[in-house]
Design goal:
By secondary structure, the protein is α+β, with helices and mostly antiparallel strands. The chain has 4 domains: 114 residues, RNA polymerase II/Efflux pump adaptor protein, barrel-sandwich hybrid domain (OB fold (Dihydrolipoamide Acetyltransferase, E2P), Beta Barrel); 107 residues, RNA polymerase II/Efflux pump adaptor protein, barrel-sandwich hybrid domain (OB fold (Dihydrolipoamide Acetyltransferase, E2P), Beta Barrel), CATH 2.40.50; 61 residues, E3-binding domain (Dihydrolipoamide Transferase, Irregular); 203 residues, 2-Layer Sandwich (Chloramphenicol Acetyltransferase). Helix content is 21%, strand content 25%. The protein is built from 11 helices and 26 strands. The strands form 7 sheets. The protein has a 6-stranded mixed β-sheet. Strand 21 and strand 22 form a beta hairpin. The longest helix is centred in the middle third of the chain and has 16 residues. The N and C termini lie far apart (62 Å). 33% of the residues are buried.
Length: 554
């Protein structure tokens, strides 16, 4: 008897899943324990194993497709079994050609001639199920679109499973997209620098028998019946981009105008050496700058500095002037990055949806300064004040679980674990990697982990698992000379702690005015979850830990 398989809930926050890749095809025999598909959730990509034996009669959606939890994912049964009633029961499900062939007794003579039409291998009825199609994956929980930073494979190149196809710039980082199949790259859905929505066509991978034009036509009009398509005369080579023209051998000439394609390592080394990438000729694909280009770069004499160019209709983006002339209107317009778009959207939603209120306390850091000095006399890695504040915060959250909560609309989640997000400033905006189970970690462990995350963030090497799952957030601007500030809550957290710098100010101790070291911290609270008294009690506990650090050892 045919059995339906529904999209399972693979994580506590999962509402939908994306089919990363099917490991079984319609018509194949499936054994209990076989991997049916890889499902991309909001947390990770996980393998879905079959819990029964049978033949795969139907798949709910193809590679790259999205299904809500409890939507029809697949149907297992006996070969030739009638499954039309199961498929029809789930609204929006598409009956695959295999399922149609499995039910020849359907009393509808009209569609019958359409089945034996032409034994063409291209299934234009449901293009999303075509194995050759690679759609733009969702590489982060907030990603809606991606930018092709660079293609690592070009049309006509042989691709093996695991090869890097392209570098994709998301709202969080630039990530390498690996191929999950073997074949030849037949088509690219966008050029380097172009933007693609999640689940839009990224590329086509297959063998020389694949009719690219038929697939493109099917994707443009998926509801249309398969029509006669031209033989694969329009070979993939017609889609190949013309390589970026080599720069003219001009002294100190600008080689890269506009978007600069460079590997993360090349960018890092160039920044360390003070090399402007617009003067570096790339030797990689499409002029991509790689490490060897930076190593071999020799600075040429700079040309005479041109007069600043003001914006005009003919030149809407003014070049960045070295000297701003008085009386000249001058500006620079920069496209909004994916990261900045998401920061703007999420923080706007947070500030205008969550009713914020703020509580500030002043903390005497004399004992903390003395303790840090003693610790660093023998520590392998120098402990920072941020590490101490993070540890004290983690211990305080264990005592005040309401502060360690999340607003989920119709319920409040009180977290028993402490995962603290640490805001890290990068060139494009802000990333918040998470120190997990921070209350159980030593100062040295916290120090190493935070440093590692900060470096990964700057190198754009953070993975989605690094920034997901925070229960509380800390934002520290003390190193920038900021005494005090307020921060916007990072949803779904209920609170965020804004940490200023330690200031030397006169304080009264034992009736005497003496120099003191004062730290001001401000707690931003979501009033839907946290009341003023709960926030104040948390800050008093935090203040106690920092003013008497020895308490953290108890």
């Amino acid at each position: 008897m045919a059995e339906e398989i529904l999209m399972p809930r693979l994580s506590d926050t999962m509402t939908e899943g994306v089919i990363a890749v099917w490991h079984k095809k319609v018509g194949e025999v499936v054994k209990k324990g076989d991997v049916l598909a890889e499902i991309e959730t909001d947390k990770a990509t996980m393998e879905l194993e079959s819990y029964q034996n049978g033949t795969l009669l139907h798949i709910g959606i193809g590679n790259g497709g999205k299904l809500q939890v409890n939507d029809l994912l697949a149907v297992l049964g006996n070969p030739g079994e009638d499954i039309t009633s199961i498929v029809a029961k789930h609204s929006g499900a598409v009956v695959t050609p295999a399922a149609v062939e499995a039910t020849p007794a359907v009393a509808q003579p009209a569609p019958a001639p359409a089945v034996p039409a032409t034994p063409a291998p291209v299934a234009a009825v449901d293009p999303a199920t075509l194995e050759e199609v690679v759609l733009m994956p969702r590489l982060s929980d907030t990603m809606t679109e991606g930018v092709i930073a660079s293609w690592q494979k070009q049309v006509g190149d042989v691709v093996k499973k695991g090869d890097v196809l392209a570098d994709i710039e998301t709202d969080k980082a630039t990530m390498e997209l690996e191929s999950y199949k073997n074949g030849k790259l037949l088509y690219q859905g966008a050029k380097a620098g172009d933007k693609i929505q999640v689940n839009d066509l990224l590329c086509i991978i297959g063998d020389d028998s694949v009719d690219v034009q038929a697939i493109l036509a099917a994707l443009k009009n998926p509801g249309a019946a398969p029509t006669a398509v031209a033989a694969p005369v329009a070979t993939p080579t017609t889609q190949t981009e013309t390589p970026v023209a080599a720069a003219e051998p001009t002294v100190a000439a600008v080689v890269n105008d506009g978007r600069i394609l460079a590997s993360p390592l090349a960018k890092k080394i160039a920044a360390e050496k003070g090399i402007d990438l617009k003067y570096v000729q790339g030797s990689g694909d499409h002029g991509r700058i790689v490490k060897t280009d930076i190593d071999n770069f020799k600075a040429a004499p700079a040309p005479a500095t041109p007069a600043p160019v003001a914006a005009s209709p003919a030149n809407p983006v003014a070049t960045k002037p070295t000297v701003v002339e008085s009386g000249v209107v001058s500006f620079e317009e920069v496209p909004v990055s994916q990261m900045r778009k998401v920061i703007a959207r999420r923080l706007s939603e947070s500030l205008f949806t969550a009713p914020h209120f703020y509580i500030t306390v002043s903390i005497d850091m004399d004992a903390c300064i003395a303790a840090r000095t003693k610790i660093n006399e023998s520590a392998k890695s120098k402990i920072s004040f941020n590490d101490i504040v993070l540890k004290a915060t983690a211990l305080s959250l264990k005592q005040h679980p309401k502060i360690n909560s999340s607003w989920l609309g119709d319920k409040i989640r009180i977290n028993h674990h402490v995962n603290i997000g640490v805001a890290v400033a990068v060139e494009e905006g802000l990333l918040v990697p998470v120190v997990r189970f921070a209350d159980t970690k030593s100062l040295s462990q916290i120090n190493v982990e935070v440093k590692d995350y900060a470096q990964k963030a700057k190198d754009k090497k953070l993975q989605p698992s690094d920034w997901e799952g925070s229960t509380f957030t800390i934002s520290n601007l003390g190193m920038f000379g900021v005494d005090q500030f307020t921060a916007i809550i990072n949803p779904p957290d209920a609170c965020i702690l804004a940490v200023g710098g330690i200031s030397q100010v006169p304080v009264v101790k034992n009736g005497q005015v003496v120099p003191g070291n004062i730290l001001k911290v401000t707690l931003s609270c979501d009033h839907r979850v946290v009341d003023g008294a709960a926030g104040a009690a948390f800050l008093q506990t935090l203040k106690g830990y920092l003013e008497e650090p020895i308490k953290m050892l108890v």
